[in-house]
Amino acid sequence: MIEALRTTAFRWALGIALWSISLSLLLLAFVYWQTGTFVQAELAHRLRHELRYVAAEPGAAVSRLEIWLGEDLHNVRFAGLFGPDGAKLIGNLDALPLGLSPDGEVHRIGTPVMIAGRRLREELWMAASRLADGRTLVVAHDTDEIDRANATVLRALILALGPVLVLSGLGGFLLAARARRRVKATQEAIAQVRRGDLNQRLPVRGADDEFDRLAQDVNGMLAEIARLMEEVRSVGDAIAHDLRTPLTRLRARLERSRTGAHSLAELEEVIDQSLVWLDQTLSIITAILRIGEIQHKHRCAAFSRVDVAQVLAEAAELYEPIAEDKSIRICVEVTHPLPFLTGDRDLLFEAVTNLIDNAVKFTPACGLVRLEVSRRGAICILAVEDTGPGIPPAERDQVFRRFYRAEPARHTVGNGLGLGLIAAIVELHGFQAVITDAPGGGCRFEILCPTTIDRGALHTAAVISA
Amino acid sequence: MARLLLIEDDAETAEEVLGDLRNRGHVVHWEASGPTGRTAAVGGAWDALIIDRMLPGCDGLTVLQALRGAGDQTPALLLSALTDVDERIRGLRMGGDDYLTKPFALGELAARIEALLRRPVDADATILRVGTLEIDLITGIGHRGQRTLDLLPRELKLLIYLMRRPGQVVTRAMLFEEVWNYSFVPKSNLIDVHVGRLRRKLEAAGERSLIHSVRGLGFTLISDD
């Protein structure tokens, strides 16, 4: 229970209860004040009316006063007619009360009066007026009635406050308990997630309130985490597999040649082959580490203006001899003017060479690898097209994951890390990589680079041929 | 034969490096920590230093910086497990003459040490000559004997790099760094194809071979006279 007192829900409930109580109190105070004012105004009105009525005809003043007093059964009315010298002519007031000005307005004044033969000091509401003949007329009324009315209203209000307190407290408690139950269910679900059950989801009541929306967001996040964990696991498996294959081969070879080799030359050959396999294994590890480095780094500090057309031309030049050996032509098309890109020249070059490497690898002899830089609005497009087998649309999303290789590519040399590396580089730059069909039937990789158009940055590079 | 100082904390790596460099005829001294390495570097007359980037006691870069600060210009090669390009740039900026990422082939290290020991020849010459091969650096025109060579710009750059280091082993990674100015390791046979092309142009008229492959490592340009 003490713990319950500390919960946010409870404090909120308490706050709500206090707030509603304050509101009720304020409302009641207002009603009380308004009732008092109304009763008092009513009385003042009656007194002023009577005063005017009696004073209207000085000749009939005495009889009118007597009638007014005569109607009073409860000894609440007082009146007096006083001569110009202040002597009492008629009425149940002994003397002209001190401090009462004959202005016709109603004042509350304490004064001694005679009631049922006893002299009492009473609080009276009274009004006075001087008649034309010099006499002063006073009419007055007991304040008890107003005080009683006020007291009654106050008592009623105080009595009503009790239930208000109880009801708002109860309401707050119920609300708090309900919120607490939902929080508790959520907490239990989260505790299970923390224990490692990533398939656990937070309860959603279907009410589409804030709580539900929050729970849905968290559930979405959990699903994404579960997906990533699965991916990491499968990447781990893939890495282990890719490393184990050459290492197993290597081990067997070494073991066999330790006893089987007949000459030093034979042994040297085995060692050379082993070194090649080891280098392959190391290159896989290096590539994985590089992807990790690129993904985790905030290289933006090393970003500078990069001439993409030049990067593309240099990459094409680098691959030109190897393509020529396969009778593949590499051509570069640049549409001017081009904006400078902000980026890391080395990494962009690495990304482009990886794309060209793939393109050359998958393009059959006498094919064409086309490199293109163009601009579509504020977006600079780097594209590499080939006339190879292409990538089925269903597999395009997966291509950029580490270690993925489209089925037909399995028999081609490579460790499947090239595209993972490209994805990491593209992501680091805030670019986007897209795979489409090339017009020639092969595959078209596009790197979309959003640039801020700056007229001054547009440049015209030398005509490029590869 | 050169006097070399190796500052490397991993005993097994050090042992392999020591063995290999001693086999190649160098005198190598080994220190396993930053502070002792620094003392040894200041005390001895070394031809080159090999400094591991991460050392116990004191970082390899700090050792190097201290030496350079004291006016010591002994060529230094940094070894590091960090493959990051930025790390490499930092290492070179702090006074390193070369930077090699672990794991490395022993031959690669030896080739790079060799390159540090034998600074490029004819730095001021306008004409480079190796045997019957000649390049005019001002016109950029090369000759093999009387025959004029038809070289692409990159091939010219590659040939100049090789001619400045005659008889020296030049690795693929070194070529990619120095001739192409990119510092990641390219796919294995890219450089070979470029060198192969250049080689064919040099030997087009049936001349003797100038560029020789060094198995598993790189290339070397050997004079034909």
TrEMBL record, chain A:
The keyword Transferase applies. PROSITE patterns: HAMP, HIS_KIN. Coiled coil: none annotated. This is histidine kinase. Residues 238-453 form the Histidine kinase domain. InterPro entries: HAMP_dom, HATPase_C_sf, HATPase_dom, His_kinase_dom, HisK_dim/P_dom, HisK_dim/P_sf, Sig_transdc_His_kin-like_C, TCS_sensor_his_kinase. GO terms for molecular function: kinase activity. Keywords: Kinase, Membrane, Phosphoprotein, Transferase, Transmembrane, Transmembrane helix, Two-component regulatory system. Pfam families: HAMP (PF00672), HATPase_c (PF02518). It comes from Methylobacterium radiotolerans. It catalyses: ATP + protein L-histidine = ADP + protein N-phospho-L-histidine. The chain crosses the membrane at residues 12-33, 156-177. It is an enzyme of class 2 (transferase). Its EC number is 2.7.13.3.
